[in-house]
Write a structure and sequence with these properties.
With 115 residues, the protein is an alpha/beta fold. It has a single domain, classed as P-loop containing nucleotide triphosphate hydrolases (Rossmann fold), CATH 3.40.50. The protein has four helices and three strands, in the order H-E-H-E-H-E-H. Helix 1 packs parallel to helix 2. The protein is globular and about 35 Å long. The C terminus is likely disordered.
Length: 115
Amino acid sequence: GVERSIKAISEADFVVILTDISQGFLPEDEVLLNKVLVRQKPHALCFNKTDLIKDNKADEFIKAYPNAILMSISEDIGIEKLEEHIFGIATENRQDIDNQVLITNARDDKQLKTA
């Protein structure tokens, strides 16, 4: 369980923490979230089964974790928001990669011109 998840976090480029919020935010969930934050991993914290809790309880979770995505997979709620979040991080990382290649190419171009 948790040990395998911690190992997977250390090897991952992006982490989705999907928790059954109808059971509350469990200590194991907190451990995994802390591992992700300490390692500064791009991530999505998703609270699933929000259809099974009262609105005021969902509000409490959002106050505690403002970047979390509220979901109900069975009700098809929040999936699009998760997809958008993942896409945003992927394109942000892709832009960083493109910029690094551009800088390298510009440096190489200058060196070629002076040679």
